[in-house]
Specification:
two-stranded antiparallel sheet, elongated
Amino acid sequence: MQPASQPSAPTPDSRPAGAAGAGPAAPSAPGSPSGDSAAVGRRVSDGAATPIIPDCCNLGITARILVPLNLGALLIAALTGATASDMLVRALAIVAVLEPVAIASLLTLCGVRRLTTGRSYAVQWASGLAVPVVLTFVACLIAIRYMAPELTGGAWLGWLLVRCLTAAAIAALIFEFFRLRTLSFAPSLTEARLQALQARIRPHFLFNSLNTVLGLMRGDPRRAEYTLENLADLFRVFMRDTRELVPLDEEVVTCQQYIAIEELRLGDRLQVNWLLDDMPGDALLPSLLLQPLIENAVHHGIEPRTEPGLMSVRIARAGDRVQVEILNPLSENPPTRSGNQMALSNVRERLMLLYDMEAELKTEAIDGQFRLQLAFPYRKERRRRDVRRHFNPYR
């Protein structure tokens, strides 16, 4: 069973949250529309400068912006109010304007960032600051009759100007904070941690596979040769740069090659049902993200059993997310060999580094089955690949 290959079209910047960025590239020369348009949508890893506007599509960044803003509004109301009732009125007045402006700005900046990433810093700053300023102006223009009905003549223009300048200053501080935060983590901390996490997977898997080959050398040398050919393909996967994201269908091929090796050792006890009809093969994810989860299911759910066990792997797209579900039977007997005990914690930490709060990994035991559910953002492969890896168990 091999995953369907789906063509993919170039898409705007979809760099995962928390991923390390490369050094800034030289911005396009002013007045050079051809260079500017070519840079739009480029990733930092492709040479684009670190974006000025933070990734407001990311739930973690959105929460880190909204919470301090609302706390600051409450603090201002507490410092300027004379009585408790006055503080409450001031807090409600500030939040009535701040909350819709902040939420609308974040939603708008989510799209603006995609359009301006890769352009000159001047364009990014101007576009980013214009959004909260314009929305603040509109919101205050609507609310001025309720918040400051005593203003007459040109006084209300000054009232509006102060609030628009305040919105621009707050936005500039937020942009600079997240830009410096991204630079502070890139590339050393995030990349080093990802490489360390992935390096822990490689020797464990390879040693177990070589032990399987050794067991086949005398009894079935032909099958041992097929297994070594699969291992050669997997070595190429393991030598890949840990910072590289791979298409989902290639990651599934790696998992199927691993299952083929385990089937030689476990025989009919291992049965796998691949449900991949709705799988988005062009979705990008970190290399070797699913293989430890598959290995964990085989080790804990199938290996301790004496009778055949069915493992189910379902991958599908749900809106803008990719959902993975792995089901394996629960066993009352302990495993016969030490397994990949760090699999779940490893994957959770890698998801946090790459996707922040946008990815989710849940596990539960129900009706004699252990169910693992993984969800992460659907970000398409930017270029169509002419050659795809396919799994052939009969070669």
